Amino acid sequence: MKDVTQLTEGWSLRHEGALLPARVPGCVHTDLLAAQVIPDPFIGRNETEIAWVGRQGWCYAAELDHDSRHERTELVFEGLDTAAEIALAGEVLGRTRNMHRTHRFDVTGRTGRLEVRFDSAYEEAERVRALTGERPNVYPEPFQYIRKMACSFGWDWGPTVVTAGMWRPVRLEHWSTARLAEVRPVVTVDGLPDDGTTTGRVEVRVRVARTERGAGRPLTVRATVRADGPGAGAGSAAGTSQAAEASFTGDEAVLRLDVPDPELWWPRGYGEQPLYGLEVTLADEEEGRLDVWRRRIGFRTVVLDRSADAHGSGCTFVVNGVRIFARGVNWIPDDVLPSRMTPERYRTRLTQAADAHVDLVRVWGGGIYEDDAFYDVCDELGLMVWQDFLFACAAYPEEQPLRGEIEAEARDNVVRLMPHPSLVLWNGNNENLWGFRDWDWEEPLAGDSWGEGYYLGLLPRIVAELDPTRPYTAGSPWSGSWEHHPNDPRHGTHHSWEVWNRQDYAEYRASVPRFVAEFGWQAPPALATLRRALPGERLAPDSPGMLHHQKAEDGNGKLNRGIARHFALPEGDFDRWHYLAQVVQARAVAAGIEHWRAHWPVCAGTVVWQLNDCWPVSSWAAIDGDGRLKPLHHELRRVYADRLLTLLPGEDGPVLAVDNQAGTPWHTTVGARRMHVDGTVLAKAGIPVEVEPRSVARPVLPAELLPAPGSAEEFLVVDADGLRAVHFPVTDREFAYPPADYGLRLETVAGADGDAGARAGEATSFDVVVTARTLVRDLLLQADRLGAGATADRGLLTLLPGEEARIRVSGCEDVTVEQVRAALFCVAPR
Ligand code: BMA
């Protein structure tokens, strides 16, 4: 049986003649940080100070000592970042130039000093650029000439932190006769439940590598699939187990397993996430078991329906026959130093996404193929994953040495990720087809390659060959062919960026794309995050640290104009600017989603740019670089919930849309009130509504309920089953808000052990009970002002006079009512 030894210990990093202790997996920056050679790049303007780290070569070393009874020993690097030369006892084993691949070297019988010498990624990129020639790029740095996480060279939300190192595990594999080189489960489902009997089919395609002795030997491979995992509960296929055996033709074998009536894997909100364990064992007669491979799989079908219809051509995910409005977010690397990611951190971040009722996560092409831990959590939480191949915002040469690297990398990652049932789409690139058409690339390219051959040729061929049941799209955005503009809203996927760049967020309502794969609005991170990142700085929207932690072109200008369209732009009041920027972000994204969801099924999904951040920065993220939730996160939780009440501004006043994305009908009565700003109800009605599952109803609002057009004193409120929507006929700066007046009281929450108050100094939970005496619009408790670890369970709240709201605060020590009052913000403060 194969033996595996992880090589985590005994590594050192050479720096100016000294040897620093090194962590593997890890990278140069984390080792230099641990040795206090560099300051934290996330703090202040340290990023600029440590730019030198990326500009030089680095050498890691360890003593390699092994002694094995096996025929073969291989040194396996799951990820080398990036341009490396690997030498053992002074002899070069090989060279690498791609952080997204696994590399394997034969070290049978060889021991001694193992050195992994990294060149500067810039040097490598320049070398390749010299071979392929120059290509256009949206960003200044040369990321398209090197297969390394593009955003490590800086992005419009990310710092330039160009690292090097063994960012994924390194191990020795000792084996004899043969090992499993590739295992690909192709999972399909015959006969969906409505058709009567269902059969889950697993076709396992196996490839082996052999030693000389193994060359002629007959091998057998056995596969078993059994119910497993958190979702497989009572009444499920629990306990069932199927097995199959096959022998090899050459180095390949195919096994087929049928699982009768499998429990289906569903996206969250549509059903459970039962997972089945698949085990593949390689054996030969003399030695018995040689190698084992284990993964979890799930039974579901997925189709991306792109067929033509009266509106153009759609883009609708269909899982197990159910058509889905995708409630998505874009995912960027959660840390600009991705070796720091842990399974726990993936789980935290993805659980935050699930808490916001997200059901689809797009792994964006300027980042990485994430660790298996990421996709494991998505499998468990029912988060559909759309995976970009790693190309973003640039023209990419198709010549060697890049072409071979890209093919190898795509093969590695398709094979690695295809067992995950959460994976629903492979996508060729981010914005490159659009870039070719619209960003003036054609002239500088002058006929040179730019990546089209990857997106329309190589990548779809690889997906069809290796992972034939999964949909592939050439790019995002993409209209399906060159016949239509790549970003044509009527066809396929669309990125909506004009609105943030140049317009008021109301303009989201001007079109109904078939699938909005990117759109978003910026806001600064939580105050505690800024305080940590910018120690000692007197914060102002344009203070030096704030500007350094704002990477977007004219980012602050766009933030300010976004605020000024609705509110008086606060001068000299950072806290209010910060609050208003966060309000506008939440409202903007909500406006888009409310509008597009109301147009289901013409529009079949929204993928918010962006869920997360990779350091502390003002950005489009809903969760900031320290993991704190912005008000947008709470707003996503509202607008992505199964049930949503929406008031959409229409030509003749507000239009009510009642969205029901649940699988059961929603029968309710919408209470609608036309109100005066002083709290008087001017007209009211109960509107009975019946909304079918996964559909939208638009009940007519009686005319007497519509606030007078242009009124600065009237507004409309609709409520149903604890949900609320409000409509104000004019912008906030025009509306006659009374100075907000509310009472405040704090109530300690009984602990889980029934212990009423908390012991002194102990972190606790308490409720902030707000009683509105006037209209209070978009009340927000910024819990991080009460304590760096404090969180609140609610975001923006609009209260009518006399209403009470309860906000649960967790993770902070006792505070006073005055402190809470100072952490509360609203649109029209007293
Ligand atoms: C799109 C993304 C990213 C970018 C974002 C915000 O272009 O694909 O490249 O960060 O917009 O500008």
From TrEMBL:
<dbReference type="InterPro" id="IPR013783">
    <property type="entry name" value="Ig-like_fold"/>
</dbReference>
<dbReference type="Pfam" id="PF22666">
    <property type="entry name" value="Glyco_hydro_2_N2"/>
</dbReference>
<protein>
    <recommendedName>
        <fullName>beta-mannosidase</fullName>
        <ecNumber>3.2.1.25</ecNumber>
    </recommendedName>
</protein>
<dbReference type="InterPro" id="IPR036156">
    <property type="entry name" value="Beta-gal/glucu_dom_sf"/>
</dbReference>
<keyword id="KW-0326">Glycosidase</keyword>
<dbReference type="Pfam" id="PF00703">
    <property type="entry name" value="Glyco_hydro_2"/>
</dbReference>
<dbReference type="InterPro" id="IPR017853">
    <property type="entry name" value="GH"/>
</dbReference>
<dbReference type="InterPro" id="IPR008979">
    <property type="entry name" value="Galactose-bd-like_sf"/>
</dbReference>
<keyword id="KW-0378">Hydrolase</keyword>
<feature type="domain" description="Glycoside hydrolase family 2 immunoglobulin-like beta-sandwich">
    <location>
        <begin position="198"/>
        <end position="300"/>
    </location>
</feature>
<comment type="similarity">
    <text>Belongs to the glycosyl hydrolase 2 family.</text>
</comment>
<dbReference type="InterPro" id="IPR006102">
    <property type="entry name" value="Ig-like_GH2"/>
</dbReference>
<dbReference type="InterPro" id="IPR050887">
    <property type="entry name" value="Beta-mannosidase_GH2"/>
</dbReference>
<dbReference type="GO" id="GO:0016787">
    <property type="term" value="F:hydrolase activity"/>
</dbReference>
<feature type="domain" description="Beta-mannosidase-like galactose-binding">
    <location>
        <begin position="11"/>
        <end position="168"/>
    </location>
</feature>
<dbReference type="InterPro" id="IPR054593">
    <property type="entry name" value="Beta-mannosidase-like_N2"/>
</dbReference>
